[in-house]
Please model this.
Amino acid sequence: MTVLHLRAVVLPDGAHRELWVQDGLIRLDPVPGAETVFDAGFVLPGLVDAHCHVGIGTHGPVELDEAAAQAEADRDAGTLLIRDCGAPIDTRPLQEREDLPRIIRAGKHLARPKRYIPYLADQLEHEEQLPAAVAEQVAYGDGWIKLVGDWIDRSVGDLAPLWSDEVLAEAISTAHRLGARVTAHVFGEAALPGLIEAGIDCVEHGTGLTDESVELMARHGTALVPTLVNVENFPSFAAAATKYPTYAAHMTDLYERADRTVAKAIEAGIPVYAGTDAGGGIAHGLLADEVLALHRVGMSTEQALGAASWAAREWLGWSGLEHGAPADLVCYDEDPRKDLAVLRHPKRIVLRGNIVGA
Model:
């Protein structure tokens, strides 16, 4: 393996430093014979898409080669660590490929019959099956469980929770006992208190957060991945729901106040991370758009960068650019702290110690 040498401003500390890459690891001491592959610019720890679906296409599950192409699109945009928030196919073979981002798998979504997108979730006939299903997914995944917390209930014509508070408490306790964390898809308001009080580790989307549930999340230390890229689709969701006017109006309202909702979460000190919800109708490789959206709703440029890089890596148990850390990094000619759109144009990408992509 070629020994690499980089000279740049290293974020987040902003210091001019030299880095060497040997045997897939970062070295801070000079390594003889290294090839200088980046000289003058800015280096970030590999970017993180904290809500991504490798293996889902516009019409449902995809073949493994298409899933690999999705992961390549993310990689070429600088995303080197993916928290895959539920996939209907087994993507473990992709984890063996040295040229693809590292993937933290959540296994399959857990939902109720007719209460989620067809073919994407394990549908449990009775909610009492949830704790056992969670235990099964812990064994199948990589330390995360993905619940569908709410979805349209056609019998009432609006978003509604899928699980009782008692079942959620048992299921989340089961996951924690087995060493896994739990997250949930939640659009509306009603499902949030039960999930948070049950000890859920993260909320996806969170467009239904109220002042009360924001305070509850802050008190519990619950993380939020708002997927603002996906929230832009809410008007089309509403327009398509011609049979369910209450749901359509609800989705429109959630969309119209989404920026203010996420801003309140940021102001309250809730840990917020960048995730695109790529898969299905959302293209892969849009992490820069999500970072810009987080800045739009109130994060500083450095906070937004951290939400998609060093802070997200720490949250997921991965290191940054320390000596001995895995050599996953992205290089830019210009300072992304001055213009976040710089993230759209990586100059050099190093993954597992090898130059890939750009």
Q: What stands out?
A: The mean pLDDT is 97. Residues 45 and 329 are 5 Å apart (CA to CA).
